[in-house]
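User: Please predict structures.

Assistant: First:
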Amino acid sequence: MAVKTSSNIKSFVWSFMEQGGSKVIQLIVQIVLARLLAPEAFGVLAILLVVTQISDSIAQSGLGMALIQNRDSDERSYSTAWWLSLGLATVLYAMVYLSAPAISAFYSMPELAIYLRVLGVIVLFNSANSIQRSYLERSMDFKSIFAATTVAALASGVSGIGLAFLGFGVWSLVAQSLMQSILICVVMWVQIRWKPAFVFDTGQAKSLFGYGWKICITGILNVFYSGISELIIGRACSARELGLYSQGRKYPTAAIGVMSNSIANVLFPMFSAIKSDKKELQSAIKRGLSLGTFLVAPMSLLVAVVAEPIIAILLTEKWLSCVPIFQLTCISNAFLMMQLVNLRAYMALGDSSLYLRLQMVKVLGGGAVIWATAALTHDIYATAIANFAVGILSILFIDMAPAQRIHGYSALSQVRDTLPVFALSIVSSTAALLVQFLKLAYVPQLLLQCIVFTAIYLGGAKLFKFKELSEATSLMRGFASRKR
């Protein structure tokens, strides 16, 4: 490949460090908070986050993605995007502030309004940070992103845990989320040479928005699609049930997201840089998919197998009711790289309208199924099953459907190429699952299941000469030499 492999490995290593650093810290913080707080507090937070994430998507308007995708982006482009995003964020925050009492009344939670008005400020900082982050991602400077997100995760985590110890309940979750966003902005402001100038180029704004608005709508649909079950459950069920449901989905997504997002963050700028060479792009897509699936699929299935001991040990037994939801989310995450790699390729090729159309189909079709299940059953487990089925079918039959036409690597070829990895992952997880019949205590059960799974998976990969094993080894070497 013409792309510099060593450079891509270094970028992945720092992207993994950023995800692994900040996300693992956030995960630890959430685990501590879950031990200190009741599920009801996380139910309230789930509603707050869906509302603020929709506002975020509108405020950012896909401008960061547009800056990365456009080879001709300059400092004037970044300044224009900065002011446009900040202006949209200000309008959005005003709307959130004014609508907070109505949202509070809809969910019959009087305290929701003040939480929403305070946490809504996060939209302003996230809009600014999206431009800062795109500046660093475009230059593949994931080292700086790692530093900013890790510092922010540590400081905000300590503050959130401190407030939880002092009995502030939901406020500890609100403060932790808000402080993290503010600190990322502040640290990146110090790090980055570029600062927004007092310029606004109308022509560039139209160009950026012309690409970005489709990603913006897609982002809104994506948040709505992923959060629709929380919104319905929040209305139909208790805050405790919503807390169990949201956390059952959140923890496995956060854990697997460390690896999958690390790869996806590197793929988009890499695909954008080689998009004019179809053969080279196709090779990069194939390599990204095979390596990503080799790492993400087994990790997802292993976490599904050890769900019960993990939750009992880390979160305490008051959270055991979320185990089935946790497991279903893990299994669906095994297919995640098929979605991420293809969607990043579509966007890199400039076809943001396709990305929008795919998301609309998923929201209208899959979202309707999830909404109907949640609304009719008022049951968090039935809703989780619907979410699981819709998620996998959406990846296989919607996200991957245009692959052959867009970049030449067909959905069937992708499934065929990743089938050995899925087969080995299933065999390994089945063997690890049998350990539970030994009726061991949670800690030895967890350790033995991890050992059995890892031994069979790595042994099988070595025996059947999976090429992804050597590539993963190269990544580990790059990880070990990251300071060079």
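Second:
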Amino acid sequence: MASVTASARALPCFAAVEAHATSLGTTVASPDFPAKADAADELRPFRDKFLFPAADAAGRPSVYLCGNSLGLQPASTKQAVLADLDRWAALGVEGHFEDEPGKPNPGVAWWTIEDLAEAEAARLVGAEPGEVVIMNSLTVNLHLLLGAFYRPDGAREVIVVEDMAFPSDEYAVQSVVRHHGRDPAACIVRVPHGADFAAAVAELGDRCCVVLVGALQYYSGEWYDAKALADAAHGAGAVLGLDCAHAAGNVPLALHADGVDFACWCSYKYLNSGPGALAGAFVHDKHDTRALDGALRGWWGNERSSRFRMAREPEFRAGAPGLQLSNPPTLPMVALKEAYALHDAATMAKLRAKSLALTGYLEVLLAQLLPPGSHDQVTPRDPARRGAQLSLLFAPPTDVDAVFAELRKRNVFVDLRRPNVIRVAPAPLYNGFADVRAFVDCLAEALAAQKT
């Protein structure tokens, strides 16, 4: 491309992308920009720590921009899992307690294995010690947290959610309302996309019990202001819960400082811990989890000093760890540790800076290389209001299924969301600028194939 189009220059991200190119001695329009940007990327070595899908039969390398759906496998994960299998084989039940040097897989005694990635998890979501725990899966944790915090009392019975909440969140909310013998039609208020959440909560006033929001909207990719949401919820006398499935590992989080009451997240997207990986839960330390009457309980939430006494009367741990039910599965936990350690080593600050650069370049290329009017962007144009994901809407006469099929023919991995959105998410931990350019070139070819 000889010059940058007016539509690309008009983007809010363009100045930053242009400045990046200038610092590398090139231009945004130059074909050599991706190679130069990748060569200068201080996070580039992390790419070699991940396993990418193989080249296709035609020899085309994979273009994997689907970390918002399932992150890639760290190269070290297999050995970590095998090491824990060796521990089980060699030690049997003593693997719970044996932790001496020279024993198989030292440092991962199973009876404390939930601590394995606790420090990384706390840094990941901006939590204080004792506010996080790795356990279960996301929807299980959401059920546990809603059960603990949704305590309808008279007219204070409403849960406020996004109108386009992820379906599993919607089902969990309906379930907890019905569990209390109340009517979801009366007790669930859905705020339309783009509406003022704070105003909706304020209008409900003392009818509001819980506000539950996706920290980063799964469909649109919009990143919400957690502090503003917390202030709105607390102003109405309610609590704020966040589903951080698409935020954890994607954008900087400060759950403690922002005053979020509870949160949960999964670990298989930007955190690369494997399909169905263990999830995380957060409870702000202003809440004494031992005093949450509605919380469901299990033996693993006991203090470690009394956990194996098998007493009828429990001694629950303070904080989020007190909400554990059962001992966590060790193989998923060691896989999670490998992935969290990589993310922690890269640091969220550096990942966020690179993410802004990648999505900015992606947005510029889409404006530059695709036919005008070929798509719309559901994700906010303001880089500060989004993470790694750009959601692209393809309206008729474009057949989004045919476009997606053409992308797969070219060994491109992205995500199709009905009815007509393709989600594209360059993950800064392992994706580069050449990946972005390759994707847009393939998308341009896929759109051109519609006309032939």
